[in-house]
Amino acid sequence: QVHLVESGGGLVQAGGSLRLSCAASGTIINIRGMSWYRQAPGRQREWVAGITSGGTTNYVDSVKGRFTISKDNAKNMVYLQMNDLKPEDTAVYYCRLSGLRDYWGQGTQVTVSS
Asked: In Å, what is the CA distance from 29 to each residue of 33, 47, 111?
């Protein structure tokens, strides 16, 4: 069983920055990649960024140039550095681990005020 815990969310003004963290624990094997998703009120959950086991990163167009995903394999951590935040970035952010099966964290709230 794998357990994911996100942290680092909060309230920030537009133009500000936050760094989200996702800590993975448990029996972690055969990881294909890790991703960040977000879900705004009344909207479907959307993929934001992903990083493969080999370190390849990808981003949704709306965050390219502003968000950076990274990982620390030794610590079983994945991060999402979010810069130049906009009100439309407001959402609950979730961490996902893709391996033999998918695991999700409980989410962390990010609120960007205008």
From this structure: 11, 23, 33
51 touches 57 (CB < 8 A): yes
CA-closest candidate to residue 21, choices 1, 36, 41, 39: 36
Strand partners, 37: 47, 94
Sequence-distant (6+) residues with CB within 8 A of 60 are: 46, 47, 48, 49
Residue 90: DSSP 8-state: -
Residues 13 and 26: their CA atoms lie apart, in Å, by 36
Category of 76 on φ-ψ map: left (φ > 0), alpha (ψ -120 to 50) or beta: left
Beta bridge partners of residue 47, listed in sequence order: 37
Q: Is 70 exposed, middle or buried (0-12, 13-18, 19+ CB in 10 A)?
A: middle
What confidence category does residue 30 fall into, taking pLDDT thresholds of 50, 70 and 90? confident
- Please give the average per-residue pLDDT across 74-96, as a whole number: 97
